[in-house]
Each structure stands twice: as structure tokens, then as C-alpha cells.
Amino acid sequence: MLWGLDPVFSAFARLYVRDILQMTESTQVPGIYFYNSHPIYKVDVLGTVVYKRERDDFFCYGVDDGTGVINCLCWKNDLLKEEANPTKSGGKHSDGAKGGFNPATELEKLRQAQQSRCHLEIGELLRVRGPVKTSRQQREIMASTYYKVNDPVMAVQIAWMMEVPQLYRQCYDKPPQLQPTATGASGISSLSKATNTIKDFLKQTSVSRFRPYDVQDLLQPLISSQPQTASADQEPVAGPSACQQLRQLLKEALEILQDEGIVYRKVKSQDEVYHVTAHDTDLRIVVKDIIREDSKREKYAEKGCHILHILSAVRQHYSLNVSKEALELVLKSLECNSDIVSTSDSHYTVF
Q1: Can you say whether residue 137 is alpha, beta or left, with left for phi > 0 and alpha for psi between -120 and 50 degrees?
Q2: Is 172's pLDDT higher than 60?
Q3: What's the pLDDT at 4?
């Protein structure tokens, strides 16, 4: 009943073939699979054709994305089943369509283009979407959409290889949040609004650091907008004042921002100063210098520096309070600016 609350359930999940083959099938609902507790039944795969079979009604392509090979059953439509000569219609209507638009000729061209996109040879690039099925103890994709991808300079494959790891980090590798929130849970909605309000403030002002009282007034409308209801026959119940509620809301919002790595405290003292990770140039310089220097060492020359090694060095040379989440944001920013490059999963080096 709660699967629909997971956005992965309604989307074509761009998973690696290795993970598709290893997913666990639901025992209660056949055709539903689970990756990291996400319910999945349809996927989106891009890979190279390594073998093919053709029957009267379908093609069967073996698609390899570098992590594994999976069967893709691609059904033919009525146009593909026709064995008519592709030049027959064109020759018949060419005399009457000189210099004009001939619908029959254009339809024939469209049919030929469709046939060329659906007939693939070994070594060509195929993109396929469809539900996952298990037939005779073999996992395969029943294609609802498939076509040949023309990618002479590998632009599509490079874009795919950069996007899929991000989807894993941001969505697939995180456990799903399937519990519905109650309608009257104003505290949860207020905390979410408070967190987003502070995020917008940090993005718009580009501040590198701030103190809690700098953003406290931004949350004031969230406190004053909460309904204060009481029955006429009930005595007022003592509770936290508006000022106390505001401080508590601010504290919880800042804790969430720290958990996400968006802000961190370089030095924990009575003077609460929060550094904004995205705008902290000192932290970026330290991380870049650590990767540059340690990559020269023989131990890290081949694969680069692991993220845990970088985190340990940052905490040793810069601040003990830098979290792994904050470091990941810095590494992502440096990689987007081509200052560093990821050699493999969680390993980084300089050009």
C-alpha cells in the first residue's frame, strides 16, 4: 500500500545490470523486485549488444553495460513484421510527388527509419526500457521501448556514466521513506520549511559563515503561523513560549543541515559559528592540496586517495568537525570544476 510513496516505484530505474540480476523478487507480488528496499518493476538500461536472436515476433538482444549481461526481449510491431520491399512504395509514388510532399513516401521513409533503429547488430549500442521478468530462472527485460543509439563520440555513454552514479548516491542507495506523515503533524512540516528557508538564505546571500541569530528571524513566521487552539471549557496549558519554540526549531534545522553536510562548525565553542560548505574556499584549498600532495606518493599514485584518507587528513590539518557528508560536497564541487578526478568509486586524484 505504501510503495506508491516511493518515486523509484513509478520510474524506470537506471540500475546497473549487475544489480538487476541480483535483485530479490517479492514472494507476495511476483514481478516486483527490491533494491535496497526500493520496490522496482521497470528499469532503463543502456549497453552494447553482445549477442542477438531473431524470431518471427521478437528480437532477443544480450545487453552488456560493463557490469553484466542481461537478456532483452524486444517485440516486433506490425511494421517490423512486414517483409515488403522498402523501395516498392517509394518507386510507385515518386512520379506524382516531384517537388511536393507525398504522405505515402514519407510514411515509407519513416518505416525504414524505424526498422533501422530496431535492427541491431553485435557491437551496437542499445537503450531499452521495460519491466523486469524472471523466466525459467533467468532474469530478463520485457522491452516496452527500445532503439539503437548513434553515439560516434561516446557523448551519450559518458553522460550516462556520470548520471547513474549520482542517482545511486542520491536515491537508490538511500533507504526509502515510505511512512506517510500525519495531516496534523505541523512540527514536521515546520521543520522542513525551516530547513528549506535557511538553505535558500545561504544560496541567495552566498555567505561563507554565519551565527544562529543571523537566521533566527527568518523562522519567526513559521512559529507565529502555528495554530493555537483550545476548547472553551479547558484551562490553558502551560507550554513553551514562542521564543523557546523558535530556538528549538532553529536548533533542529541546523542539526539537519549539519547531517547533510551543508554546514559545519570548524571550532566548537560558546560562540556558535557555522561555516557554509559550498562557500568555504579555505576548505576547498585544503582538500585540493591534500589530494595533490598525497597522489604523488607511491601508495596512492595508481588509484588516487580514498575518501576516508582525505577525511582523516582534513580533520588532522584543518578541523576535527568536518563530516564525511561535507567532504563529499567539496569533492563533488572540485570534480565539477575539473580540479580533481575520481579514478574509481571513492578514490580521487589530480589531473
Answers
A1: left
A2: yes
A3: 82
Question: Scanning the structure block, which residue is given the C-alpha cell 549520482?
Answer: 166
Assign 266 to helix, strand or coil: coil
In one-letter notation, the amino acid at residue 214 is D
Predicted model pTM? 0.50
> What percent of the chain has a predicted confidence (pLDDT) above 70?
83
- Lateral strand order in the sheet of 24-25: 24-25, 33-35, 38-40
Least Cα distance to 128 among 34, 55, 20, 9 occurs for 20
According to DSSP, the β-strands at 125-135 and 69-75 are unpaired
Among all chains, which residue has been given the C-alpha cell 563533488?
A: 332
Considering only CA atoms, which of 270, 298, 275, 272 is closest in space to residue 286?
275
Residue 348 and residue 90: Cα distance in Å, rounded?
57
Bridge partners (DSSP) listed for residue 60: 53, 73
pLDDT, tens digit, 9 for 90 and up, residues 133-147: 988 888 999 999 888
β-sheet bridge partners, residue 44: 129
Single-letter amino acid code for the residue at 36 = N
What does the alpha-carbon distance between residue 141 and residue 188 come to, in Å, rounded to a whole number? 40
Phi, psi of 61 (to 5 degrees): -110, 140
| Cell 543541515, residue located | 257
Q: Which three cell numbers stand for residue 230?
A: 483550545
Q: Can you tell me whether residue 103 is helix, strand or coil?
A: helix
Q: Whole-angstrom Cα distance, residue 63 to residue 249?
A: 51
Q: What are phi and psi of 88, to 5 degrees?
A: -65, -50
Contact 41, 5 (CB under 8 A): no
CB 71 within 8 A of CB 60: yes
Pairing state between β 145-149 and 125-135: antiparallel
With contact defined as beta carbons under 8 Å apart, do 313 and 290 qualify? yes
Structural contact between residues 41 and 26, judged by C-beta atoms closer than 8 angstroms: no
